[in-house]
């Protein structure tokens, strides 16, 4: 062993409000600003709300398995720890490396979303044509905004979890304040006649709901960052599970109320002509352009909260894999002062900073491939939940799910269903180029996994886990 015990441990500093803001901010992001109008058009006002309620129930079932496991094994890496204990070494790597792809894809996409949103506030700011990719003109000013934003977020995460948590709380409060202004204003000034059609006429009731439902699981991605940062949460273990579930339920209400408020303010023709329905609905509430711009700022705040949260989740997942000898050791380095996984953060920062150079269309490929990685991880966690319920019934579970085997069974089935959505034959199947992205990422990971396993030994991860369970410093020195 090299160095002191504290040099190789993360700082346990996150309070309840920090954790709630971390997960909720990760889940709401920017998508609701862009997609709410299309949800209402596809399924009708009540149909879109129904899709989010049913989709939210599915995510809650998956979230319950996370909540129990996070309280029972509050260690950095989340999925990595659960799948290792239940399914073994290789399954743990596949599960965690898959969700790292999801996190990196979201972080990279936010570096593209930011300059896109800035254009809503400052039209025609994009100048200095560089090149065209997939029909999209990449400009120097557009790239500069994305790269600067990425570097700022990397710096915030580099200098410590306290700073990242403070930013998350502050920005999340801004989103909530603007959201409450919008929802209450729409309830008082909106017209119930604009809710028509309640359900889709063109797609049918079921077809319309299903069109929106396939998007729902990916709008809730983010609660899983709580287990990733479990070693930095300063709460009783039972409370970790409770806060995780509270964040998911809060997100369900958020999406449903945003849809309702938008439908109350914009009729079908207004929705069809709107590029950003929620800001347009906000402008209609207050009959002033400043209100629409304020909602765009709330959308930018959503980008920041999602960006920040997935930096935290992705870097901790990479750190956990490297710490267990499944990735090269340099990715497990902790900063001696800030207690952050610096090299893992730098790795994500570099990838995120490169993303704007490829333009917006190509980033959709990365996000779609990353979505498959996330739902694969959900499936592995649900399976781990069931396996541990059968194999280790005596495991101390501070947050224990009632009817656990039934909940676990539903979680496995729903997770498997989400995986199927990406497969050929599904309306949302991955494109060939997206399969190349996913396959290339997995091959890269397997190469590093094989090298690390040969370098550090097949039993290294087991030694690390045993030390962590014993409460000792898990760092073995490599």
Placed side by side, the strands forming the largest sheet appear as 1-2
Q: Let me know the number of strands.
A: 2
Shape: globular
Radius of gyration: 22 Å
Q: How widely separated are the two ends?
A: 9 Å
Count of DSSP helices?
A: 19
Spans of at least 5 consecutive residues with low confidence: 1-6
Q: Main sheet?
A: 2 strands, antiparallel
Main traits of this protein?
single chain; 478 residues; mainly alpha; two-stranded antiparallel sheet; 19 helices; 2 strands; 2% strand; disordered N terminus
In short:
The protein has 478 residues and is mainly alpha-helical. The chain is built from 19 helices and 2 strands. The protein has helices at residues 16-28, 31-43, 45-72, 79-87, 89-121, 140-158, 161-189, 205-213, 216-219, 225-228, 237-265, 268-273, 277-286, 289-323, 342-354, 359-391, 404-420, 432-456, 460-469, and strands at residues 129-133, 136-139.
Structure, described:
This protein is mainly α. It has helices spanning 16-28, 31-43, 45-72, 79-87, 89-121, 140-158, 161-189, 205-213, 216-219, 225-228, 237-265, 268-273, 277-286, 289-323, 342-354, 359-391, 404-420, 432-456, 460-469; strands at residues 129-133, 136-139. Strand 1 (129-133) and strand 2 (136-139) form a beta hairpin. It starts with 15 loop residues before the first helix and ends in a 9-residue tail after the last helix.
């Amino acid at each position: 062993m090299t160095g002191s015990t504290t040099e190789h441990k993360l700082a346990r500093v996150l309070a309840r409000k920090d954790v709630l803001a971390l997960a909720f901010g990760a889940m709401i992001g920017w998508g609701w600003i862009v997609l709410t109008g299309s949800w209402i058009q596809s399924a009708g006002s009540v149909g879109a709300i129904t899709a989010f309620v049913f989709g939210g129930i599915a995510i809650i079932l998956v979230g319950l398995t996370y909540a129990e496991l996070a309280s029972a094994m509050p260690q950095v890496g989340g999925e990595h720890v659960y799948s290792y204990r239940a399914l073994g070494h290789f399954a743990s790597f596949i599960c965690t490396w898959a969700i790292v792809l999801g996190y990196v894809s979201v972080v990279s996409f936010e570096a593209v979303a930011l300059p896109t949103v800035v254009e809503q506030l400052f039209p025609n700011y994009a100048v200095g044509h560089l090149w065209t990719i997939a029909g999209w003109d990449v400009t120097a000013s557009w790239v500069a905004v994305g790269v600067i934003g990425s570097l700022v977020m990397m710096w915030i995460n580099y200098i410590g979890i306290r700073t990242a948590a403070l930013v998350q709380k502050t920005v999340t409060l801004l989103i909530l304040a603007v959201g409450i202004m919008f929802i209450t204003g729409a309830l008082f000034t909106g017209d119930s006649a604009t809710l028509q059609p309640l359900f889709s006429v063109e797609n049918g009731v079921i077809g319309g709901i299903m069109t929106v439902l396939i998007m729902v699981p990916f709008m809730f991605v983010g609660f899983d960052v709580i287990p990733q940062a479990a070693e930095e949460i300063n709460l009783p273990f039972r409370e970790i599970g409770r806060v995780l579930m509270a964040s998911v339920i809060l997100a369900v209400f958020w999406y449903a109320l945003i849809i309702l408020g938008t439908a109350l303010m914009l009729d079908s023709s207004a929705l069809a002509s709107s590029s950003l329905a929620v800001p347009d609905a906000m402008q209609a509430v207050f009959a002033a352009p400043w209100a629409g711009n304020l909602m765009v700022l709330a959308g930018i705040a959503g980008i920041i909260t999602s960006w920040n949260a997935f930096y935290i989740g992705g870097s901790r997942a990479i750190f956990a894999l490297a710490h267990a000898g499944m990735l090269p050791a340099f990715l497990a380095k902790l900063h001696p002062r800030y207690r952050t996984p610096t090299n893992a953060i730098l790795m994500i920062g570099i990838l995120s900073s490169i993303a704007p150079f490829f333009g917006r269309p190509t980033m959709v490929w990365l996000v779609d491939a990353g979505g498959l990685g996330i739902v694969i991880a959900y499936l592995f966690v649900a399976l781990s939940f069931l396996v541990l319920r059968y194999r280790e019934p005596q495991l101390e579970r501070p947050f224990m799910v009632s009817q656990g085997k039934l909940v676990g069974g539903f979680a496995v089935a729903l997770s498997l269903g989400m995986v199927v959505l990406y497969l050929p034959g599904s309306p949302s199947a991955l494109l060939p180029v997206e399969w190349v992205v996913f396959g290339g990422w997995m091959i890269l990971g397997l190469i590093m996994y094989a090298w690390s396993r040969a370098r550090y030994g097949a039993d290294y991860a087991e030694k690390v886990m045993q030390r962590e369970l014993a409460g000792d410093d898990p760092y073995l020195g490599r």
